[in-house]
Amino acid sequence: MSGRLFSLPLALVCAAMVVPAHAATIEITMENLVISPAEISAKVGDTVNWVNKDVFAHTATAKNGDFDVTLPPKKSATSVLKKAGTVEYYCRYHPNMKATLKIEP
Amino acid sequence: MFVRWSAAIAAAILLSSPALLQSASAADKPTDPQIAHIAYTAGVIDINAAKQAQKKAKSKDVKAFAEDMLRDHEAVNKQALALVKKLNVTPEDNDTSKALSKQASDKLAELDKLSGAAFDKAYVANEVAYHKQVNGALETQLIPSASNAELKSLLQTGLKIFQGHQQHAEHVATELK
Q: Does the keyword field hold Signal (chain B) (predicted)?
C-alpha cells in the first residue's frame, strides 16, 4: 500500500528526468533593426521565441545553415534548438543585424 | 523663407553636392508637413525604381536587391502614412519634393533605354548615389528640422535602414564589376 503510494510520484520524477527537465524558452527580439540580446546561451532542446517588433520583415539566418527563420513585420515565430555549437546568425534583408547563439549540449 | 531653403536643397539635390547640402542648413527649416512629404516622395521614388528593376534586371543579386528595396520602402511609407494620419497632418508639396520627383522621372526614362548588364550596373550605381543623397538630406536637414518626436524617430529609423541599403547597393555594385 505504502509502496504503491510512493511509486507514483517516483515514476513522475523519473519521467521528468527522461524528458529534459531544463527545456526552456528564450526570447530573442528584433527591434529598430537591432537583435537583442546580441549574445545568449541556450541548451539543445530549448525553444527560441523570435519576436519581430519592427514594421520591417526580418530573418534569423544561421551562417552555418542550421536555421533560417523568416519573421514578417510585427510577428513572432518559434524554433527548437537541435544541435550544439556557437551559431552566428544575421538578417538576410538587413545584414547589419547580427548576433550569436551559444547552444550547449 | 521656406522657398530659400528649398531652393538651396533643390540645387543641392540636383548637383548632389554635400557642400551645398550643408550650406542650406543656414537657411530656414522645412516644416513637419513638408518633411513628411519629402520623406514619402523619396520612398515612392525608390519603390518605382525597384519596380522597374524587377522587370528589367538580369542579375539575381540585382533582382534580390530590388525586392529588398520594395519591401523596406513600402514598410517605411506605410508607417509614414499611419503617422501623418495619427498626427492629423497633411503632407505639403514643396520645391524639394518636386525637384526629387523630376530627377527621378528623368532617371527612370534614362534607365528604361538600357537592358541586361548595362541596366543592372546603371540601376545599382544610381541606387548608391540616391541613397547617399537621401541619407545626407536626412542627416543634415530633415532629422534636425523635424519638430514632432514621432516624426523624428521615424526618420531616424529610416536613416538607419537606408544606410543599410546604401551598403548593400555598394556591395552589389562591387560584385557587378
A: yes
